[in-house]
């Protein structure tokens, strides 16, 4: 059995559009697969979804707003990364990443479903075929050129090293021969001109995606379109999965571009974007006409926007974008405050448990104009779901995240929206209830006091005050 050798690095993103009546359930691994997806987006993380050279994460935030406004309800977001679950979770703490429907980790050797990350044990079982980790570690130990990666990156079906580029080809050749002689069926992937992964032959990002697509097909839930997104060698396999659209982001590495030139040059469904990372993904969605490709973050003034969008998820994204801009003083103070969209008798249950009439919150918000001017303050929403509960009423549920410097706080938020009342062609916010997401409450809850006077005095003393009037 000849081991497969893949040089380069590959990263991926999958999106799928789902039927309208879909309900998110995450208790079993099949529940995610039960959903009918229209589109699927499979994306690599490092230097594809996440631009480590963009400290403001603007591309990612643009993507997030677009995804939550237009795709979350009926599409499937898949992250496919070389990272182990341990360092994947670290990245999630550092960057404003959305929650994917499926996470494929450790270079396609671990597949997990939903937010609670339920493992696909069938996949791991399948990877056991002709795989023997001990033999791999025994044989690789014979190569002094191979420096083992950290313990976290050594996984049941992945043994990883660093090796210098000039030594890599030779090591790969000899190691392949030795593993073949020992009867193993393996795949060696060289990525980022530095990392060497030894995997079972049936593993890898491409194989993991093909496995998922096959599962969807058997269940009659095949996504209408799949877009794969990557930047490096271990992503190359994704672009060979039949019938997918693909985007190599502008900053893709030579190893991936070279693979493309040699293997997929004439495939019109693969593009090399002119934009970096997540901006390149947005570009590809437009290029292949897969759906809306204008991020709400790219719309400066919704009042002037000619296309009226009547969509409850978009409403949530738009409101928090306005709120961020309000506090950053990116919208003028004399600009219409959003009090029009709040039901005057509505209530707001703050995550501290305090209940306030909504009008009070609007007064507080008015005072917060510009309190985050010139800072890195950002808001994004994740997992926005919308349930129509009456002829003109929607129950919205989402995570709202605020980041400011080193601090990050998240609330599970439920909102009742109504489409009649005051706003023509728009929504009225009837009621809002927030609870802290586990471990994300601020240490000092006194800054969350709703007393306007007290707030004003805290505000004048402390420039680090955050979220005091937060919705
Ligand atoms: C990620 C993983 C590493 C792997 C590399 C290339 O950086 O952490 O273990 O070698 O991707 O696939
Ligand atoms: Mg990458």
From TrEMBL:
Keywords annotated in UniProt: Hydrolase, Magnesium
Named in its record, the pathway it takes part in is:
Glycan biosynthesis; sucrose biosynthesis; sucrose from D-fructose 6-phosphate and UDP-alpha-D-glucose: step 2/2
EC assignment: the record states 3.1.3.24
Top-level taxon of the source organism: Eukaryota
Q: Which cofactor does it need?
A: Mg(2+)
Q: Which reaction does it catalyse?
A: sucrose 6(F)-phosphate + H2O = sucrose + phosphate
Fetch the Pfam families from UniProt: S6PP, S6PP_C
Could you cite one Gene Ontology molecular function of this protein? magnesium ion binding
Cleaved signal peptide residues:
none
One of this protein's GO BP terms?
sucrose biosynthetic process
Task: List, alphabetically, the InterPro entries matched.
Answer: HAD-like_sf (IPR036412), HAD-SF_hydro_IIB (IPR006379), HAD_sf (IPR023214), NTF2-like_dom_sf (IPR032710), SPP-like_dom (IPR006380), SPP_C (IPR013679), Sucrose_Phosphatase (IPR051518), Sucrose_phosphatase_pln/cyn (IPR012847)
Q: Top enzyme class of this protein?
A: hydrolase
Q: Which residues form the Sucrose phosphatase-like domain?
A: 42-288
Q: Which residues form the Sucrose-phosphatase C-terminal domain?
A: 313-438
Q: Which PANTHER family match?
A: SUCROSE-PHOSPHATASE 2-RELATED (PTHR46521), SUCROSE-PHOSPHATASE 3A-RELATED (PTHR46521:SF8)
Q: What function does this protein fulfil?
A: Catalyzes the final step of sucrose synthesis.
User: What family does the Swiss-Prot or TrEMBL record give for this protein?
Assistant: Belongs to the sucrose phosphatase family.
The record's note on quaternary structure and interaction partners says: Homodimer.
What protein name applies here? Sucrose-phosphatase
Organism from which the protein derives: Salix dunnii
Organism lineage: Eukaryota, Viridiplantae, Streptophyta, Embryophyta, Tracheophyta
